[in-house]
Design a protein that fits this description.
The complex is a heterodimer of chains A (467) and B (251). Chain A has 467 residues and is an alpha/beta fold. Chain A is built from 23 helices and twelve strands. Chain A has two domains: 293 residues, Rossmann fold; 57 residues, no CATH class. In chain A, strand 5 and strand 6 form a beta hairpin. In chain A, helix 3 crosses helix 12. Chain B has 251 residues and is of the alpha/beta class. In chain B, strands 2-1-3-4 form a four-stranded parallel beta sheet, sandwiched between helices. A four-stranded parallel beta sheet of chain B has the order 6-5-7-8. The chains are: A alpha/beta (467), B alpha/beta (251). Chains A and B meet through helix 1, helix 15, helix 18, helix 19 and helix 20 of A and helix 1, helix 2, helix 3, helix 4 and helix 8 of B.
Chain lengths: 467, 251
């Protein structure tokens, strides 16, 4: 997938001016936020569960080699195959090879952000395969030829009316106008594809080291049909999605559903352990897990290791006021919002992603809802630090910081400058006590007046009065 | 009597001396002696948040030195005081000389209103304000320092004041330091969303604990031509919200 993050500002401004997007974002996000809050309030041990989840993830990350090997052995013992992909290209090639070997024609897909990350669909389509996304949101954006704008609600930026139009164009009329009719239509169209599919590709919410199982959670049941009806099931997952035991999975399921969609549990939780065994009534003939690194192992042991705890729930973006204003596409790659603003620079490079860590007020709401307590604002600040060190931040900002530091390091000079500014700005503010325009402060006065100072600084007034 | 060093935050010092005097009055009423060292300047947060950690460190050292010897350092800002409390120890994590000094300062640093209630045990103030107010929870104070109930407790004791909570009081107003000038369009949407919630309360006064947020919201209100008054909570608690509000000029 192309990285359009360098155009963040431009895309953000366009998004802000789009009333349809505003309507779509407002409705669904509010639902996520309110439902999550209700359920969290109803679970007194939620904060303790967050601590436990953080600790389990930290333990896994400290011992990732061990758990990955254990997982590999367990998958093999269950009759499946584990493939190791160092980067996106290796991941694509592994999957293309499997599809070619089994002479696949139709490929169904459950939702997988890793498959977006490695740009799998384009590679499959280039080889002539028919690729069908089966998650309703993914199906919608596949029809619209757009990338996802949210990690669990990929079509959150679409209104019902827009979906209605897309379906009419793709399926023919008569046009459906209610949500129920639209969903039924998608179900009927997709049902046929599941049976035709040679390969079913899903993500993996959890990879269980002790059993070699991969687990997906969905609300539509599309993942189950994708992985049980195709002849071959391929799981694409990041190497960090390992948990030690099934016991641990139950912990993560409790916090994931609440954090993601505000449900006690998702509708379907499905474990896949190896291919179909003799006597099984259904299941794939082959079971493959593609473990994708693609930059993750470089984060181990460094300042960004905490980010590898992420369970992809989307709570950070649901609660982020910047995401809420501009939506997911402005971020310009696969992962939007706070978690994406950390991951994108790390995965695609600091140079193309200057705005992502900066377009954030560091208000901390993301961290306050993160089920695995990732210190997102701190990580974003660390990225800013690295941008500064590598000279990626804008020259104007660097010069301004230089002047500010020079003056602020000299309290006498700083206070003198403040005394001048207090007088000058008060004069400019006039009787209204506010400034409508101010040179070099266009970013402020474009939208706001600047309240004028009172005329003297606190320090000079205090020390005059006290003596 | 505890000896308190009052931190004159940049915005308070330049834009709103009234707030400094309000803070001093509240501290003195709570039984503190208040001093304002002249050797202080910016806490360094703009540098820290812009990635210039070296500049932040240099300014932090200056402030640590300026406030050594006080029993407490108190400032009328959740944002600046969170920098002193949380960021200073991190800035000097690997510096054996400065780390203990940074940690000592952090442990003695407090946001004004939480200091009054949590340290001094103040539960009521002697002030009156006629009007319906709504209170915006500024992010750094709220999430960084746990400032939530303290201002509400004290506002509850102000004669004539009625507090009406807004929806999403805990959602950022779009200020975010340099964010608001680097991304004015996004900031503008955020402040408009916030002000819509403020307006829905029907309150005639907007209060908060951080001048950055208050100037952002007041500046936008003035641009829209709205009449709502904006004060720092401490000004109301000190009985000094009698002149013009933020952005009102002199009346």
């Amino acid at each position: 997938m192309d990285v359009s993050s360098p155009r963040f500002k431009e895309k953000a401004v366009i998004a802000l001016a789009n009333p349809t997007l505003r309507q779509a974002l407002g409705q669904s996000r509010k639902g996520f936020v309110n439902k999550r809050a209700e359920l969290v309030a109803a679970l007194p041990e939620f904060e303790a569960l967050r601590d436990q989840a953080r600790d389990v993830k930290d333990h896994v990350l400290e011992n990732l080699d061990h758990y990955l090997e254990r997982f590999d052995n367990a998958v093999t013992a269950a009759g499946g195959h584990v493939h190791w992909a160092r980067d996106a290209e290796e991941a694509r090639n592994i999957i293309l090879d499997i599809c070619e070997r089994v002479q696949a024609r139709t490929i169904t897909k459950g939702k997988s952000m890793v498959s977006e990350e490695v740009n799998l669909n384009a590679a499959l389509e280039a080889r002539g395969y028919t690729v069908v996304e089966t998650d309703l949101g993914e199906y919608i954006i596949q029809l619209a030829k757009e990338p996802p704008s949210h990690i669990i609600a990929p079509a959150i930026h679409k209104t019902k009316e827009q979906v209605s139009e897309l379906f009419e164009a793709a399926h023919g009329g008569p046009r459906k106008t209610t949500v129920a009719d639209l969903v039924t239509e998608a179900r009927l169209v997709l049902r046929d594809k599941y049976f035709k599919a040679d390969v079913g590709i899903t993500g993996g919410n959890y990879l269980v080291a002790e059993t070699g199982s991969s687990i997906i959670v969905t609300n539509e049941g599309n993942g189950d049909l994708t992985q049980t009806l195709a002849k071959v099931h391929i799981v694409t997952s990041g190497i960090e999605r390992i948990v030690p035991t099934l016991e641990d999975v139950s912990l993560f399921l409790r916090i994931l559903a609440r954090s993601a969609t505000g449900q006690e549990t998702e509708t379907y939780t499905t474990l896949s352990t190896g291919p179909r065994r003799p006597g099984d009534v259904d299941g794939p003939e082959e079971f493959h897990v593609v473990l994708v690194d693609n930059g993750r192992s470089k984060m181990l042991g460094g300042k960004f290791q905490d980010m590898l705890r992420c369970i992809r729930c989307g709570a950070c973006m649901n609660h982020c006021p910047v995401y809420g204003a501009v939506g997911g596409h402005a971020y310009g790659w696969v992962y939007p919002g706070p978690m994406g603003s950390v991951l994108t620079p790390l995965f695609v490079g600091l140079d193309a992603t200057y705005d992502l860590p900066n377009a954030c007020t560091l208000n901390g709401r993301c961290q306050s809802v993160c089920p695995v307590r990732i210190p997102l604002p701190e990580l974003l600040r660390e990225l800013r630090h690295q941008q500064h060190q590598r000279g990626i931040s804008p020259p104007v900002q660097r010069r301004a910081l230089g002047v500010w530091r020079f003056v602020a390091e000299r309290p006498g000079l700083y206070q003198f400058a403040n005394r001048l500014a207090a007088r000058a700005l008060k004069g400019l503010g006039g009787r209204d006590g506010r400034l409508r325009h101010l040179p070099f402060a266009g970013g402020w006065t474009a939208l706001r007046d600047l309240p004028a100072p009172e005329g003297k600084t606190f320090l000079e007034l205090w020390h005059t009065r006290k003596t | 009597m505890p000896r308190v060093g009052l931190y004159a935050t940049c915005l308070m010092n330049l834009f709103r001396p009234t707030l400094g005097f309000a803070a001093a009055r509240l501290l003195e009423d709570a039984g503190c002696t208040v001093e304002v060292p002249l050797a202080q300047s910016c806490c360094g947060q703009p540098g820290y948040n812009s990635g210039d950690v070296e500049a932040a460190r240099a300014l932090a050292k200056q402030l640590i030195a300026a406030f050594e010897g006080f029993d407490y350092v108190v400032g009328p800002s959740g944002s600046c005081m969170a920098t002193l409390r949380h960021d200073y120890p991190k800035l000097f994590e690997d510096d054996p000389d400065w780390r203990p000094r940074a940690e000592a300062l952090a442990a003695r640093s407090h946001e004004l209103l939480s200091f009054l209630t949590d340290v001094c045990g103040v539960t009521a103030v002697n002030a009156a304000y006629t009007g319906t107010v709504t209170y915006h929870d500024s992010c750094s104070g709220l999430r960084g320092l746990g400032v939530k109930g303290q201002p509400r407790l004290l506002l509850g004791s102000v004669e004539g004041l009625q507090l009406t909570e807004m929806q999403d009081a805990e959602v950022c107003c779009g200020f975010g330091g340099t964010f608001c000038v680097k991304y004015p369009e996004i900031s503008g949407r955020m402040v408009d969303d916030k002000l819509a919630k403020v307006a829905a309360t029907g309150a005639d006064t907007l209060l908060g604990g951080d001048l950055g947020c208050l100037m952002n919201m007041a500046g936008r209100l003035r641009r829209q031509g709205a009449k709502l008054k904006v004060f720092h909570t401490a000004e109301v608690l000190a009985g000094m919200a009698t002149g013009g509000g933020i952005g009102d000029g002199e009346h």
